[in-house]
Amino acid sequence: MSMTTQLWERCANSAKLLPLFLPVTQARIIRVVSDDIQQYRALKTRSNIGQLSTQEAPSLYSHYDLQASLRSVPGVLCRSHPGMTFPSEKNRFLSQAFNELSDGLYGYAMVLSRDRTEAEDLVQETCVRAMQAIESVRPGSNVKSWLFTILRNIWLNRLRRRRAAPKMVELDGDESTAQTIVATTKDPHAHYVSKVERELVREAILQLSDEFREIIVLREYEDLSYQEIATLLGCPAGTVMSRLGRARSKLRSLLSGSLGTPDRRAKGATQ
Amino acid sequence: MRNCDECSLEILLYLDNVLTGRKLEDLRAHLAVCSGCRERLEEERALSSLLRETRPLYFAPQALRARIMAAATEQITGLSRASVGSRKTRTQI
């Protein structure tokens, strides 16, 4: 067994290879890596590992995290193609991320722009920019934060260009086809309640200031950590925490007129 | 003993399960004697629950999803074609 083959074996069984890009997609990525490792083993069995074609080699690399791990070992892969990179692999990974994060990105774009058309455009441009810049992403990067940062930067650049406040567009109650599909899978009553609540919450959030809207969505809907939000917004984590506290306080007061707390609603129902 | 202002931010950390050690003990001690902060805790908990129930806040329109995936597919296909075209030679790993 050659040194390279041994290394492949070692890496294929190493937990270090499990990528840490997105907590929400981690399970899926683990599966992908696992599948690829199986594919690698199948390829290895079928042919001499030193004679694989370039078309087959990407399958062996399986994931660019794996590729990067191997490249980080001095002297290893010294016989490989010097410029061998697999952008299509990264883009496949990115398209999975888009698929899973499209609601979140669209929601963030909505609270920033408060305009459906603008929000769609922001998300689409974010995806295009991300595809173009995927090569700059390092293994282990937080792709979710990265995508939200791209979207925010595009929005800020647009604001600067316009040198005007974003136009306010009243949102109607229409739901997209995606939501209709989701609705059919739920209990109708539960869906109705959640739809009404969602609309009330949306209205309340849209009444918040720009910075409060943004922080509520990033923390409460996207589960970004305080530090991730701090990095995204370019402010200290302490500022994020205090701003979130004030935003929640304001949101509570806005919602108190429309929705009581569950406890209060329960008390009201029994009286 | 902590005052109520100091506790307000720690209540959020407490709800996120990231408050530990001495700070957690101090908050619990304060909650045991302060009905105002206990009420605040329940209000924050109720808000968190409501926000969770309304996830996602918006659904990306189907047409937007389709456009994104089409763009991604096009990009992947284009790169694959370019990749195959530019690497005709065999390589050794």
Tell me the layout of helices and strands.
The complex is a heterodimer of chains A (271) and B (93).
Chain A: H1 3-12, H2 26-46, H3 57-61, H4 64-71, H5 87-113, H6 116-133, H7 143-162, H8 177-184, H9 188-207, H10 210-221, H11 226-233, H12 237-256, H13 262-270
Helix pairs in contact in A: 5-6, 5-7, 5-10, 6-7, 7-11, 10-12, 11-12
Chain B: H1 4-15, H2 21-33, H3 35-53, H4 62-86
Helix pairs in contact in B: 1-2, 1-3, 2-3
Structure description:
The complex is a heterodimer of chains A (271) and B (93). Chain A has helices at residues 3-12, 26-46, 57-61, 64-71, 87-113, 116-133, 143-162, 177-184, 188-207, 210-221, 226-233, 237-256, 262-270. Chain A is mainly alpha-helical and 271 residues long. In chain A, helix 6 (116-133) packs across helix 7. Chain A is globular and about 50 Å long. Mean pLDDT of chain A is 67; it is low at 1-36, 43-86, 172-186 and 262-271. Chain B is built from four helices and no strands. Chain B has helices spanning 4-15, 21-33, 35-53, 62-86. Chain B is elongated and about 65 Å long. Chains A and B meet through helix 3, helix 5, helix 6, helix 8 and helix 9 of A and helix 1, helix 3 and helix 4 of B.
Number of helices of chain A: 13
Q: Find the structural class of chain A using helix and strand composition.
A: mainly alpha
Uncertain regions spanning at least 5 consecutive residues of chain A: 1-36, 43-86, 172-186, 262-271
Helix content of chain B: over 70%
How many DSSP H or I helices of chain B? 4
Radius of gyration of chain A: 23 Å
Order of helices and strands of chain B: HHHH
In total, the number of strands of chain A is: 0
**How many strands appear in the DSSP assignment of chain B?**
0
**Biggest sheet overview of chain B:** none
The percentage of residues in β strands of chain A lies in under 5%
Mean pLDDT of chain B: 82
Question: Can you tell me the overall shape of chain B?
Answer: elongated
Query: How large is the share of residues in beta strands of chain B?
Result: under 5%
Low-confidence stretches of chain B: 86-93
Globally, the shape of chain A reads: globular
Mean pLDDT of chain A: 67
Assembly category: heterodimer
